Amino acid sequence: MEVFTDISGQRGASLTRILNAHDEALTDAEILEMLLASDAFESTTAHRLLEKYGSLAAVMHASEAVLLDAGLLPADIGRLKLLRLALRRSLRSAVEGRPLLNGHTPLLEYLSFAMGHQPVEEFRVMFTNHVFVLLHDETMWRGTVNHTPVYPRVIVKRALEVGAVGINLVHNHPSGNMTPSEADIANTDKIVAACKTIGVVVHDHVIVSPVGQYSFRGNGKLTDA
Fold first, then answer.
1. Contact between 59 and 50 (Cβ < 8 Å)
2. Cα–Cα distance for residue pair 135/211, rounded to 1 Å
Protein backbone atom coordinates (compact mmCIF):
# COMPACT_ATOMS: atom_id res chain seq x y z
CA MET A 1 0.00 0.00 0.00
CA GLU A 2 2.99 2.36 0.36
CA VAL A 3 2.73 3.33 -3.30
CA PHE A 4 -0.50 5.20 -2.55
CA THR A 5 0.50 6.93 0.68
CA ASP A 6 1.06 10.22 -1.14
CA ILE A 7 -2.38 10.22 -2.73
CA SER A 8 -4.93 12.14 -0.74
CA GLY A 9 -8.70 12.28 -0.75
CA GLN A 10 -11.28 9.91 -2.17
CA ARG A 11 -9.07 8.58 -4.98
CA GLY A 12 -6.45 7.36 -2.51
CA ALA A 13 -9.10 5.68 -0.36
CA SER A 14 -10.57 4.02 -3.44
CA LEU A 15 -7.23 2.65 -4.60
CA THR A 16 -6.48 1.26 -1.17
CA ARG A 17 -9.88 -0.40 -1.02
CA ILE A 18 -9.44 -1.92 -4.49
CA LEU A 19 -6.13 -3.52 -3.52
CA ASN A 20 -7.60 -4.91 -0.30
CA ALA A 21 -10.87 -6.10 -1.85
CA HIS A 22 -11.85 -9.72 -2.32
CA ASP A 23 -13.90 -10.74 -5.39
CA GLU A 24 -17.29 -9.93 -3.85
CA ALA A 25 -16.21 -7.09 -1.56
CA LEU A 26 -17.25 -4.32 -3.95
CA THR A 27 -20.74 -3.81 -5.35
CA ASP A 28 -21.31 -3.31 -9.08
CA ALA A 29 -22.06 0.36 -8.40
CA GLU A 30 -18.78 0.82 -6.50
CA ILE A 31 -16.81 -0.87 -9.28
CA LEU A 32 -18.44 1.37 -11.87
CA GLU A 33 -17.83 4.48 -9.77
CA MET A 34 -14.13 3.66 -9.46
CA LEU A 35 -13.75 2.81 -13.14
CA LEU A 36 -15.32 6.11 -14.13
CA ALA A 37 -13.65 8.24 -11.48
CA SER A 38 -13.15 11.73 -12.88
CA ASP A 39 -13.74 15.27 -11.69
CA ALA A 40 -16.99 15.49 -13.64
CA PHE A 41 -18.30 12.10 -12.59
CA GLU A 42 -20.88 11.76 -9.87
CA SER A 43 -21.53 8.48 -8.04
CA THR A 44 -25.24 8.82 -8.75
CA THR A 45 -24.46 8.28 -12.43
CA ALA A 46 -23.27 4.75 -11.68
CA HIS A 47 -26.51 3.88 -9.92
CA ARG A 48 -28.55 5.49 -12.69
CA LEU A 49 -26.74 3.48 -15.39
CA LEU A 50 -27.14 0.23 -13.47
CA GLU A 51 -30.84 0.87 -12.90
CA LYS A 52 -31.36 1.60 -16.60
CA TYR A 53 -29.36 -1.31 -18.05
CA GLY A 54 -29.72 -3.85 -15.26
CA SER A 55 -26.14 -5.04 -14.90
CA LEU A 56 -22.51 -4.00 -15.00
CA ALA A 57 -21.97 -6.09 -18.15
CA ALA A 58 -24.81 -4.30 -19.95
CA VAL A 59 -23.36 -0.89 -19.04
CA MET A 60 -19.93 -1.96 -20.29
CA HIS A 61 -21.45 -2.91 -23.66
CA ALA A 62 -23.58 0.22 -24.02
CA SER A 63 -22.84 2.32 -27.10
CA GLU A 64 -20.65 5.40 -26.99
CA ALA A 65 -23.62 7.61 -27.90
CA VAL A 66 -25.67 6.24 -25.00
CA LEU A 67 -22.85 6.76 -22.51
CA LEU A 68 -22.19 10.28 -23.72
CA ASP A 69 -25.89 10.96 -23.31
CA ALA A 70 -25.64 9.75 -19.71
CA GLY A 71 -23.02 12.40 -18.99
CA LEU A 72 -19.84 10.34 -19.21
CA LEU A 73 -16.70 11.98 -20.57
CA PRO A 74 -14.78 10.46 -23.51
CA ALA A 75 -12.04 9.42 -21.06
CA ASP A 76 -14.62 7.54 -18.96
CA ILE A 77 -15.94 5.75 -22.04
CA GLY A 78 -12.39 4.94 -23.08
CA ARG A 79 -11.78 3.21 -19.73
CA LEU A 80 -14.88 1.06 -20.21
CA LYS A 81 -13.85 0.16 -23.73
CA LEU A 82 -10.35 -0.83 -22.63
CA LEU A 83 -11.77 -2.97 -19.84
CA ARG A 84 -14.19 -4.60 -22.28
CA LEU A 85 -11.36 -5.38 -24.70
CA ALA A 86 -9.15 -6.77 -21.93
CA LEU A 87 -11.91 -9.04 -20.62
CA ARG A 88 -12.85 -10.25 -24.11
CA ARG A 89 -9.26 -11.11 -24.95
CA SER A 90 -8.78 -12.84 -21.60
CA LEU A 91 -11.90 -14.97 -22.14
CA ARG A 92 -10.92 -15.68 -25.74
CA SER A 93 -7.47 -16.90 -24.66
CA ALA A 94 -9.22 -19.62 -22.63
CA VAL A 95 -10.68 -21.14 -25.82
CA GLU A 96 -7.79 -20.68 -28.23
CA GLY A 97 -5.72 -23.78 -28.82
CA ARG A 98 -8.19 -25.98 -26.93
CA PRO A 99 -10.96 -28.27 -28.22
CA LEU A 100 -14.31 -26.47 -28.52
CA LEU A 101 -16.47 -29.11 -26.91
CA ASN A 102 -20.26 -28.81 -26.64
CA GLY A 103 -21.23 -27.08 -23.41
CA HIS A 104 -17.60 -26.12 -22.73
CA THR A 105 -17.82 -23.48 -19.96
CA PRO A 106 -14.94 -21.21 -21.13
CA LEU A 107 -16.46 -21.16 -24.63
CA LEU A 108 -19.90 -20.20 -23.35
CA GLU A 109 -18.38 -17.52 -21.10
CA TYR A 110 -16.50 -16.02 -24.04
CA LEU A 111 -19.56 -16.05 -26.30
CA SER A 112 -21.83 -14.60 -23.64
CA PHE A 113 -19.44 -11.73 -22.98
CA ALA A 114 -18.67 -11.07 -26.65
CA MET A 115 -22.27 -11.23 -27.90
CA GLY A 116 -24.78 -11.55 -25.07
CA HIS A 117 -25.29 -7.82 -24.56
CA GLN A 118 -25.11 -6.62 -28.16
CA PRO A 119 -28.08 -4.37 -29.10
CA VAL A 120 -28.54 -6.01 -32.52
CA GLU A 121 -28.32 -9.60 -33.72
CA GLU A 122 -24.92 -10.88 -34.83
CA PHE A 123 -24.11 -14.19 -36.50
CA ARG A 124 -20.71 -15.69 -35.65
CA VAL A 125 -19.03 -18.79 -37.04
CA MET A 126 -16.20 -20.55 -35.24
CA PHE A 127 -14.21 -22.76 -37.62
CA THR A 128 -12.36 -25.78 -36.17
CA ASN A 129 -9.91 -28.45 -37.28
CA HIS A 130 -10.27 -32.24 -37.02
CA VAL A 131 -9.65 -32.21 -33.24
CA PHE A 132 -12.14 -29.34 -32.63
CA VAL A 133 -9.42 -26.72 -32.05
CA LEU A 134 -10.34 -23.19 -33.14
CA LEU A 135 -8.85 -22.13 -36.49
CA HIS A 136 -10.82 -18.95 -37.09
CA ASP A 137 -13.49 -16.97 -35.25
CA GLU A 138 -15.52 -14.51 -37.29
CA THR A 139 -18.63 -12.39 -36.86
CA MET A 140 -19.97 -12.79 -40.37
CA TRP A 141 -23.16 -10.72 -40.28
CA ARG A 142 -24.88 -8.04 -38.19
CA GLY A 143 -28.57 -7.28 -38.49
CA THR A 144 -31.38 -5.63 -36.55
CA VAL A 145 -32.76 -6.14 -33.05
CA ASN A 146 -34.54 -9.33 -34.10
CA HIS A 147 -33.04 -10.48 -37.41
CA THR A 148 -29.72 -11.03 -39.12
CA PRO A 149 -29.14 -12.31 -42.66
CA VAL A 150 -27.48 -15.72 -43.02
CA TYR A 151 -25.98 -17.12 -46.23
CA PRO A 152 -24.95 -20.81 -46.10
CA ARG A 153 -22.95 -20.51 -49.33
CA VAL A 154 -20.72 -17.84 -47.75
CA ILE A 155 -20.11 -20.07 -44.71
CA VAL A 156 -19.12 -22.97 -46.98
CA LYS A 157 -16.74 -20.73 -48.95
CA ARG A 158 -15.15 -19.43 -45.76
CA ALA A 159 -14.75 -22.95 -44.33
CA LEU A 160 -12.83 -23.97 -47.45
CA GLU A 161 -10.66 -20.85 -47.24
CA VAL A 162 -9.56 -21.53 -43.65
CA GLY A 163 -9.32 -25.31 -44.06
CA ALA A 164 -12.01 -26.12 -41.48
CA VAL A 165 -13.56 -29.54 -40.98
CA GLY A 166 -16.06 -28.40 -38.35
CA ILE A 167 -17.94 -25.27 -37.36
CA ASN A 168 -19.84 -23.88 -34.38
CA LEU A 169 -22.64 -21.44 -35.20
CA VAL A 170 -23.48 -18.67 -32.74
CA HIS A 171 -25.94 -15.81 -32.76
CA ASN A 172 -27.51 -13.60 -30.13
CA HIS A 173 -31.06 -12.65 -29.16
CA PRO A 174 -31.00 -9.11 -27.72
CA SER A 175 -34.55 -9.58 -26.41
CA GLY A 176 -33.39 -12.19 -23.89
CA ASN A 177 -35.72 -14.85 -25.32
CA MET A 178 -33.41 -17.77 -26.10
CA THR A 179 -36.02 -19.89 -27.88
CA PRO A 180 -34.95 -20.49 -31.50
CA SER A 181 -37.30 -19.01 -34.08
CA GLU A 182 -38.56 -20.90 -37.13
CA ALA A 183 -36.02 -18.92 -39.16
CA ASP A 184 -33.22 -19.96 -36.77
CA ILE A 185 -34.14 -23.62 -37.21
CA ALA A 186 -34.53 -23.33 -40.98
CA ASN A 187 -31.20 -21.53 -41.37
CA THR A 188 -29.44 -24.14 -39.26
CA ASP A 189 -30.84 -26.97 -41.40
CA LYS A 190 -29.70 -25.18 -44.58
CA ILE A 191 -26.20 -24.65 -43.19
CA VAL A 192 -25.93 -28.28 -42.08
CA ALA A 193 -27.00 -29.46 -45.55
CA ALA A 194 -24.60 -27.07 -47.32
CA CYS A 195 -21.66 -28.04 -45.12
CA LYS A 196 -22.28 -31.73 -45.72
CA THR A 197 -21.46 -31.21 -49.41
CA ILE A 198 -17.85 -30.37 -48.49
CA GLY A 199 -17.48 -32.72 -45.52
CA VAL A 200 -17.73 -30.04 -42.81
CA VAL A 201 -19.62 -30.91 -39.62
CA VAL A 202 -21.81 -28.43 -37.75
CA HIS A 203 -21.01 -29.23 -34.11
CA ASP A 204 -23.57 -26.90 -32.52
CA HIS A 205 -25.61 -23.75 -32.91
CA VAL A 206 -25.68 -21.65 -29.75
CA ILE A 207 -28.03 -18.75 -29.07
CA VAL A 208 -26.71 -16.30 -26.47
CA SER A 209 -28.66 -13.60 -24.68
CA PRO A 210 -28.24 -11.30 -21.68
CA VAL A 211 -29.67 -14.06 -19.46
CA GLY A 212 -28.10 -17.28 -20.73
CA GLN A 213 -27.45 -19.61 -23.65
CA TYR A 214 -29.40 -22.15 -25.70
CA SER A 215 -27.65 -25.08 -27.42
CA PHE A 216 -29.31 -26.69 -30.44
CA ARG A 217 -27.44 -29.94 -29.84
CA GLY A 218 -28.08 -29.88 -26.12
CA ASN A 219 -31.81 -29.55 -26.80
CA GLY A 220 -31.96 -32.27 -29.45
CA LYS A 221 -32.34 -29.93 -32.43
CA LEU A 222 -28.99 -30.83 -33.98
CA THR A 223 -28.19 -34.52 -33.91
CA ASP A 224 -26.71 -35.29 -37.33
CA ALA A 225 -22.97 -34.79 -36.82
1. yes
2. 28
